[in-house]
Write a structure and sequence with these properties.
By secondary structure, the protein is mainly alpha-helical. The chain is 70% helix and 0% strand. It contains eight helices and no strands. Helix 2 packs parallel to helix 5 and helix 5 runs antiparallel to helix 6. It is globular and about 50 Å long. It comes from Glutamicibacter ectropisis. Its main location: membrane. It is a multi-pass membrane protein.
């Protein structure tokens, strides 16, 4: 039985819109500023991680891309009501670009590796590794050098400053893994 392409496209659009809205809604919580580097801790990274882990690589990346594009266009979708071109050109711009690639990597790892694992422990460990690689590694890889260039601080200081995000991001990675594996167990066709 073949699928209706129009129905599949509508489903993809709805998923992307829902997850973009979720990422934006997570921005309603105020950011936590540490003072080490001018990049705040926000809940929105959890939404980015969930988008990739639940929707797969392309739809997850598109959900993150929609939020970034709308924020850069001026909508106050980022934590603390931030938006506009300045957020992309400022110290947080690399982290925002990292959201897109982070969702893409998490989604690809979940689709082609995590969900093919058998056994709950193997799936959890693969899922957690995937979210850490995409949601922390890829996002920091984009964000740390960008912050360094935007602020004029050296990369080492930017990297040390970003270490303050690690405890919270590791917690978000665990939450994302548990939620994603539970949802995929209940709804197996989500990434198809």
């Amino acid at each position: 039985m073949s699928r209706n392409p129009s129905s599949s496209q509508t489903k993809n659009t709805v998923y992307i819109a829902v997850f973009a809205a979720m990422i934006a809604a997570m921005g309603l919580l105020p950011p936590i500023t540490l003072g080490i580097i001018p990049v705040p801790i926000t809940l929105q990274t959890l939404g980015v991680m969930l988008a990739g882990a639940l929707l797969g690589p392309w739809r997850g990346a598109m959900a993150s891309l929609v939020v970034v594009v709308l924020a850069v266009a001026g909508l106050p979708l980022l934590s603390g009501g931030r938006g506009g071109l300045a957020v992309l050109l400022g110290p947080t711009g690399g982290y925002l670009v990292g959201w897109i690639f982070g969702s893409l990597v998490i989604g690809a790892l979940f689709k082609y590796w995590v969900l093919r694992r058998t056994g709950n422990t193997a799936r959890f460990l693969a899922g957690l590794a995937s979210v850490i690689i995409g949601g922390i590694g890829v996002i920091y890889l984009c964000g740390v050098p960008w912050t360094s260039v935007a602020t004029g601080i050296d990369v080492g200081t930017s990297l040390i400053g970003s270490a303050a995000f690690l405890p919270g991001d590791l917690f978000k990675a665990v939450v994302t893994t548990l939620v994603a594996l539970t949802v995929h167990r209940s709804y197996r066709g989500l990434m198809s």
